[in-house]
């Protein structure tokens, strides 16, 4: 069915958030990258020819003044919270589709403010006053039409959204997704539609619905629904009833994000277990917190625009962590403290109509009031429906040993804090040290360097079992006892015959086999005019069954790692 939807859109939000966090001037072209390609571009950078999907060097070649900033989902969510809070001062019950995009039902709010145009003006003014950011507001029948209308601040009249969408390309479907995984899935569908000659939304919407479902499945039906100016799951006209809810009291009150996230992780696992037990999934996730002074903080996240893709406990935890990070930052804390001061001043009569406002603070009553702390955390699954196609993701589970290990790590993390328990994961790199990425246990962020990319000069498998914290100096000698050296062309002065290790190099290990050397020269461009320092890696096996990884640098050998 056709439902009026209003979208609040901040253009290029990942770039805007990155520039605010790094204090980059607004008159400088900037872009956000994921380590390989550009993922978001500012308006100034687009004017110079920079486009999403470009490689970093290509983008810098097009625009030498370009400032490249790293992608950070947590930063984007944290800095977007003030925008959502400002919008909620005009319309209650906004939904966060993704950082930079808010959804809200247009009907009741438009009637209250007089018209959909007046509602848009109020939202734009509220966001600008509270955050200083410019936003676009669009209203139409269906989500996709509202998103595209927000680019120009347009209001699409009822019943003509399909006509409004018809000339747009099918690539616009990507803008209706909420996660990178969904965007990648829709991008694959768009590529298939292009190869089939379906390049516009109008041409795609004109196909019979049954044929689209038979050829493209659930995703194709979702895309055709949006292309027709409709929406499978419109924003709620009222606050939905709570279908599944879990909550916990935080005693003592919590002020730190990592401590609150630990409690949130337990709630996420409990909520996910309830969803699995009932074989259902949820379309919206509501995160609510109560501060120690009674302030209620509530935010609703849309989890699956269109109903495809299950919400795992780890993804629930990610949203909790991002939201708590947004609530407990300086801007959110300042908002709560302002409310406290207003309530305190009202109690003391500072805002009496018979006299001007005066400072009635008692001695020692400073502006920096007690830190804002959370005393209660609640998760609510909204729009609960049968799992259907997502049921396959609900089968199975970890073993008892895994669960015991997870509980032990959680107990340790509750004592020392989130960053106190670290886990090592594999990432891309050439050196054995570069390939180790350490992150807090339970955090779901991707490594900064993907491991599935080509890394010229990378050491061949197998990887060493133990990488030494401090490399040990050794001596490598050939069969005649002469020191072995490596020249700039990677040639050994002689075949390794023995390796002297230990204090004073008094332990001799006989070489049974060796492989290499592999040359590696990292970041030679960072020191122009200076000859690059070349490292040579050598894998050595000994007659006693051991094996090590040796590194030769500037005439010196060191032992970097051991093989099992």
UniProtKB/TrEMBL annotation:
CDD domains from the UniProt entry: PolY_like
Q: Which Pfam families match?
A: IMS (PF00817)
Q: What is this protein called?
A: DNA polymerase Y family protein
State the family named in the UniProt similarity comment for this chain. Answer: Belongs to the DNA polymerase type-Y family.
Q: Ranges for the UmuC domain?
A: 25-151
Compositionally biased tracts (Basic and acidic residues):
231-242
State the PROSITE patterns in the record: UMUC (PS50173)
Keyword vocabulary terms for this entry = DNA damage
Please verify whether the record's keywords include DNA damage: yes
Its job? Poorly processive, error-prone DNA polymerase involved in untargeted mutagenesis. Copies undamaged DNA at stalled replication forks, which arise in vivo from mismatched or misaligned primer ends. These misaligned primers can be extended by PolIV. Exhibits no 3'-5' exonuclease (proofreading) activity. May be involved in translesional synthesis, in conjunction with the beta clamp from PolIII.
